[in-house]
Amino acid sequence: MAGQVRLGATDQDRVNAAVRIGRSDGVSVMLSAGPTWFQIGASAEPLAYTVFHAGGHGVVFEDNHGVAVDLQPQYGIGFDAGADVSAAITARLAIVAGYRYFGGRDTEVSVTPSAILNADQLGIVQPLADIVTGLASTRGRLSILGPHLFVGVKLR
After folding, report:
1. From CA 111, how far away is CA 2, in angstroms rounded?
2. What is the Cα Rg of the chain in Å?
3. pTM above 0.70?
4. Which of 20, 104, 110, 132 has its CA 20 to 30 A from that of 154?
5. What region, left, alpha or beta, does residue 129 occupy, with left being phi > 0 and alpha being psi -120 to 50 degrees?
6. How many Å apart are CA 148 and CA 16, to the nearest integer?
7. Interval 80-127: pLDDT, tens
């Protein structure tokens, strides 16, 4: 099963010290860094959950449930640093490209199964409440570390 993680409500406030080198009507470079306060939530799918059923004549059947899970929102403090290059096209328009790195400690999150994604493909569907009970751990780790590249247009 291929998986994906979708970030939910992500909110971030940061206070950065910034230095701009160059002219606003030409090419300029801006460097910035500072602390970040973040709130992040996510969902992930699928988490594989397999149930085995005994059949007749010593046969064992399995049902591989694909389960969507929600990760409880977390709050924390981290840092960000980055640089961008702006090139003026007109007095009010510039092209901008940059790199920003966000960092912080990994955080423990509660993982809550929220839906069975492939119920129509299963022989015997396990109730979602039984899957929640059957999971050995409902804790996970969420990392906010990561680089971000961006390219865009800036209006002045």
Report:
1. 19
2. 23
3. no
4. 104
5. alpha
6. 17
7. 899 999 999 998 999 999 999 988 888 788 888 888 888 888 888 888
